[in-house]
Amino acid sequence: MRTALQNGPVVLDGGLGTRLEARGNDVSSALWSAEILRQQPEEVRAAHQDFFEAGARVATTCSYQVSYSGFARVGVETDAVDELLARSIAVAQDARAASGLGPTEAWVMASVGPYGASLGDGSEYTGDYGLSAAELRDWHRRRLQVLAAAKPDALLCETIPSLAEVVALREALSDLATPAILSFTVADGRLRSGESLVDAVRIAESTPNILAIGVNCSAVADTDRALRIMREASELPLIAYPNSGEVWDANARSWLGSAQSLVAYVPEWLALGVKLIGGCCRVDTGELAEIAAAATRPRS
Domain span at residue 20? Predict the structure, then answer.
């Protein structure tokens, strides 16, 4: 995957939960798309294939909300969670093969959601967990180890809202050989916690096997501002996959507001050094196809 990033931009997928919902699945539970992985893995495989058909060359696994604490609340044992984490990677790899793509043409990135995602209360957009970096490290460690053992192309630690969680992930990744990406959720040029984005970049740069850093699950304008700050602070490849522009209401469990296309930003972001580009929540196959076309269009 490092070689692929050197050769040109790689197109990510869009919002997996969005695609699953568009296919007629109910993703309104506290376990979100993880419940579909548990009950209907064939739907997850089909959703990955839909994105590959639209032009994606990365499948982001359905493990964002698969956590031991989250599944414990619905009576699922630890060993079963281990199996679901491994299943998420196998399903994505199967979808890649079924799409006629090989491991040097398309990649599987294991999604590692933040602690707040396990709570289902929207706290990943504030980082206000009340936990130390050490406690967060211990919470993340086993899941990272299980995902790494299933041999994804990279571990995508995403929607990171606070410095404590950046530190926790750096430490939890320290004994793993799998390449890692750290992607932050931002607002107004800072982490969602209000802490310094530059400080987050400095911590991320010291993460073993770091492949790229960037922004996801944020508004397009906030993503643009953050990418420019990050480019000033680091020479690492950048990853960008913002939301549609709608805002998640955790209490109502619904999206509010109107969508904004991110396609117009693609040329600027590629020029800035973004090497992995796609969409997050509410970005489906139609817009992903437009992003793919813009990202792969020859540049003068």
Answer: 2-296
Q: Which residues are annotated as a binding site?
A: 217, 280-281
Chain center to CA of 246: 17
Binding residues for Zn(2+): 217, 280-281
Here the CATH number for the domain that contains residue 46 is 3.20.20.330
> pTM of the predicted model, to two decimals?
0.94
Q: Residue written as tokens 């995602």?
A: 117
Round to whole Å and give the CA distance between 238 and 212.
5
User: Please, are residues 32 and 120 in contact by the beta-carbon 8 Å criterion?
Assistant: yes
Could you report the per-residue pLDDT of 46-65, keeping only the tens digit for each?
999 999 999 999 999 999 99
Q: Which helix (H) or strand (E) holds 228?
A: helix 220-233
User: Helix-strand-coil percent breakdown of the chain, rounded to 5?
Assistant: 45, 15, 35
Q: Which 3 state secondary structure label does DSSP give 282?
A: coil
How many domains is the chain built from?
A: 1
